[in-house]
From TrEMBL:
<dbReference type="GO" id="GO:0035694">
    <property type="term" value="P:mitochondrial protein catabolic process"/>
</dbReference>
<comment type="similarity">
    <text>Belongs to the MIEAP family.</text>
</comment>
<feature type="domain" description="Mitochondria-eating protein C-terminal">
    <location>
        <begin position="17"/>
        <end position="206"/>
    </location>
</feature>
<keyword id="KW-0496">Mitochondrion</keyword>
<protein>
    <recommendedName>
        <fullName>Mitochondria-eating protein</fullName>
    </recommendedName>
</protein>
<keyword id="KW-0472">Membrane</keyword>
<dbReference type="Pfam" id="PF16026">
    <property type="entry name" value="MIEAP"/>
</dbReference>
<dbReference type="GO" id="GO:0035695">
    <property type="term" value="P:mitophagy by internal vacuole formation"/>
</dbReference>
<keyword id="KW-0446">Lipid-binding</keyword>
<dbReference type="GO" id="GO:0005741">
    <property type="term" value="C:mitochondrial outer membrane"/>
</dbReference>
<keyword id="KW-1000">Mitochondrion outer membrane</keyword>
<keyword id="KW-0963">Cytoplasm</keyword>
<dbReference type="GO" id="GO:0008289">
    <property type="term" value="F:lipid binding"/>
</dbReference>
<dbReference type="InterPro" id="IPR026169">
    <property type="entry name" value="MIEAP"/>
</dbReference>
<dbReference type="GO" id="GO:0005759">
    <property type="term" value="C:mitochondrial matrix"/>
</dbReference>
<keyword id="KW-0175">Coiled coil</keyword>
<dbReference type="InterPro" id="IPR031981">
    <property type="entry name" value="MIEAP_C"/>
</dbReference>
Amino acid sequence: VRSWSPARAGRVNSSHRACLIARFGFIYARERLDAETLLRAFICDMETVQRIIYIAAVESFRAAKMAFWKLKRSVKETLALDHVGPGSLEVAALDYIAHHKDLYDVCQSVQEVVCSMNMNPKIPYPPDVDFFLIRTLIQKLCCLAFSMQTLIPPLDIALGVDGELFNRTMYYRSCDSDFSAPFVAYHVWPALMENGAVIVKGEVVTKK
């Protein structure tokens, strides 16, 4: 059995962090585009499709973080009964969850995300479009967001607002943007953040 050490814990956290950041990029490059293709079979307007996927990403992180907070509280209560060792109870709980990801009911989070999307007033489309169509994207985002909460510090996404001033340190402009426009018309993909710093840029469309 390996003894606990701050140096080893830091190396493990750093390696895990790098893997999760890479997965975030992979989802953007593959699952996001697959979801676009699925939605385009029912929705002609590309802006609507991109808005739906962005909202799915935001809601997936929200649902996963809520599930994580609830699970962490339960785990800490259990571990507190006989916790010993140099590490804090908080770190012990994070380590336990990181090694027991099967405790996370991702299917429940997917259902919550779809329910939230069905009631979201920013999605200008009839409710006959079943958002379970893109459940693969939602499930992968939920699992990723959940795992990101086990990091110290955790990773999260930036919440964008339509009409905000374009920030080149946080976003790339989509290829169909007006590159002279100073404001964000809508968001395509969120930026990944760590302690308020941008780790991976997101994507937006700018228009005058």
